[in-house]
Amino acid sequence: DFIEPDTLGRGDEEEVELMVEGAESGDDIESRRSSSPHSKPRGVAAPALAASASDPLAISASLTALLSAAFLVLQNSTAVLIMRYTLVKQGENEYLTQTAVVMGELLKTTCSFGLVFRQEGTLSGVWENKVELLKTSAPALLYLLQNNLQYVAVQNLTASTFQVVYQLKLLTTAILWVLVFRTKLSRGKWIALLVLVTGIVIVRSDPAKGFSAASASNMTTGLLCTIAACCTSGLAGVYFEVLLKGSSKLTLWQRNGQLGAYSVVIGLVGIVLSPSQRHVVSERGFFHGYTSLTCLSICIQGGGGLLIGVVMKYGNVIYKDIATALAVVVACIGSSWLFDEELSLNFLSGAGMVI
């Protein structure tokens, strides 16, 4: 068994040294941990040990991680393309985007609760701990805000521009990770982040051209909404990981179910409190303007959260980041074909740096 050095902070390395020294001397691990200045708080889980490469279970988990990451590439790229198509195509853009967000969260919640019931035989564990239930409301608000910002962003940006600029969430997540977990990133990782930002600047200075709806887009509004979505995504992801690595016994699917239930309620309340949205729903109905493509977009968006959970469970954050980067390439190729967007040399250079 081994622990990957890049995934350990100083406190993690100290923890491993304590276990090794304790095994050799027979001393109590708790006494050694209490005297260590770098030991982590008891509420945060230590990194898991990797299984032996010859272990059939480890091989199966690795294959599951690779397959789920491949599906995540497909989900990320197609989600943006279909979402944008439904928003700019005449006859497909009559639905209320806020209702689509709520339906996507409802789908994710239903699937999560189904997985919880299959594993536990009951759903009571989701609601028993009221304190943990309250904690989950914070990332639920952030994720719901992120989804709505994405809808506004893709209305004002070309699909390829949005998909590339949205990779800025890797930078915001890394900064928040360092601040929250008080850990360090290697020099190589910071250099990679700087290269990413440089690529974003190149893409911004030479926006891709698209058809009439895209050329009339408000570039500033789209970029601001995308950056805001990056910040909310990073904050929600880091906070959610804090919850998962805490002392709570809630499983990933129980947390996902809580998040989804909160998001559905918050989304419905938002529609009721908005006069314009309430008027549209009351006059035309909640599902007005829905087509088969709208339903497909909702299914893809709702399934994204489940796929990320599988990738994180059987793989790690590296799998997810690689899948997200590959999705940029797929989305750029798809948008140039579907939307007749011209990708200039500068744009392709910036996208290459991001990847």
Explained architecture:
With 355 residues, the chain is mainly α. It has 17 helices and no strands. It has helices at residues 10-25, 29-34, 56-88, 97-120, 124-127, 130-135, 137-156, 159-165, 169-181, 187-205, 212-215, 219-244, 252-273, 275-284, 292-314, 317-338, 345-354. Helix 4 (97-120) packs antiparallel against helix 13 (252-273), helix 4 packs across helix 15 (292-314) and helix 10 packs antiparallel against helix 17. The protein is globular.
Short description:
The chain has 355 residues and is mostly helical.
Q: How are the elements arranged and paired?
A:
Blueprint: H1 10-25, H2 29-34, H3 56-88, H4 97-120, H5 124-127, H6 130-135, H7 137-156, H8 159-165, H9 169-181, H10 187-205, H11 212-215, H12 219-244, H13 252-273, H14 275-284, H15 292-314, H16 317-338, H17 345-354
Helix pairs in contact: 3-15, 3-16, 4-13, 4-15, 7-12, 7-13, 8-16, 9-12, 10-17
